[in-house]
């Protein structure tokens, strides 16, 4: 069934037989799971009030049940149903960044299922801005718990095709375009003063500080458990190695000397180097992917690039270091986790 407004073309685009918002809502009400696009990555959604539906999320992902999920709401106006208190700082953050890729950790309301929070007394909440996520949340009328729609520890999905790769069985997938941001939301804990950055995302520390003043970053003394911060996460099957541009030719050569072919992700400016390296031993570089040069475009393509390179049959994925500046924080974080073994 069609809906009016700007989401209609996106639903139509998914083609005959693809699920629409009404069937997605019916599935959620029946305790089933629905994958849906957000502006960051695709989410694997369940009715956040239904413990049995929440259990299915953990089972399907293969995720430990003490790793809490993010609660998605249509609007900050629903916060009162889910959190114990809404401090003024939340109003300021919501006014600036919601709907959008910011997740806030707050004390949970007593009615929030502990299955959602991994047994913790806090709940992570965000209001996504993707039109299909918004349409789904508005039509559902309640909260949707959704981790990224990938198998636990693997690379997050930024297209409907990625979701189906990880879950080829009959999971209902709302199809949208490729995700605009491409890395998961920024997570800010408001359980501490000053607030603490738990996961970097496209909304950076400086942007947050302009709105609420100083924030802390790095693991806190009694920081809540954050699976995204488990060292190995976002990882392809192929081992990943981070390499500086200067080291790249020698590292490729040393792998080749051991008879190991590599796949490479490097920014486009390395192209002259590519000529030299691939010219020298074309058979041993299975694939050379040119990543975009700006942080936003790099993030947009990152998970698709990792998934692509993972399929090239190389024994190692070599990734050129990205810049140290703040706008690359989220990307550096994900790359270092992809490389952790
Ligand atoms: O962009 C996103 O945030 C995506 C989309 C689908 O919204 N979701 C996502 O979910 O990345 P997931 O499950 O892959 O990551 C959720 C993160 C984990 O690092 C988890 O530990 C943290 O949120 N989290 C959830 N509840 C928390 C809590 N109460 N305290 C601290 N961290 C929490
Ligand atoms: Mg995830």
Structure description:
- The chain folds into two domains: 10-217, Alpha-Beta Complex (DHBP synthase); 240-339, Threonylcarbamoyl-AMP synthase, C-terminal domain (Rossmann fold).
- 33% of the residues lie in helices and 17% in strands.
- It has twelve helices and 14 strands.
- The chain has helices at residues 8-13, 21-29, 51-61, 88-97, 114-117, 131-140, 160-166, 205-212, 248-257, 271-280, 295-310, 329-339; strands spanning 34-36, 43-47, 70-72, 102-107, 122-126, 144-145, 172-173, 186-189, 196-199, 216-217, 240-243, 262-267, 285-291, 316-320.
- The protein has a ten-stranded mixed beta sheet with strand order 7-1-2-6-3-5-4-8-9-10, with helices on both faces. The chain has a four-stranded parallel beta sheet with strand order 11-14-12-13, with helices on both faces.
- It is globular, with a radius of gyration of 21 Å.
- Residues 147-148, 156 line the site of magnesium ion (MG).
Mean pLDDT: 88
Small molecules in complex = threonylcarbamoyladenylate, magnesium ion
Low-confidence stretches: 1-16
Helix share, percent: 25-40%
Specify the number of helices. Answer: 12
Radius of gyration: 21 Å
Question: What is the CATH third-level topology name of the largest domain?
Answer: DHBP synthase
Q: Note the main sheet.
A: 10 strands, mixed
Structure class: alpha/beta
Compute the number of structural domains: 2
Strand-residue fraction? 15-25%
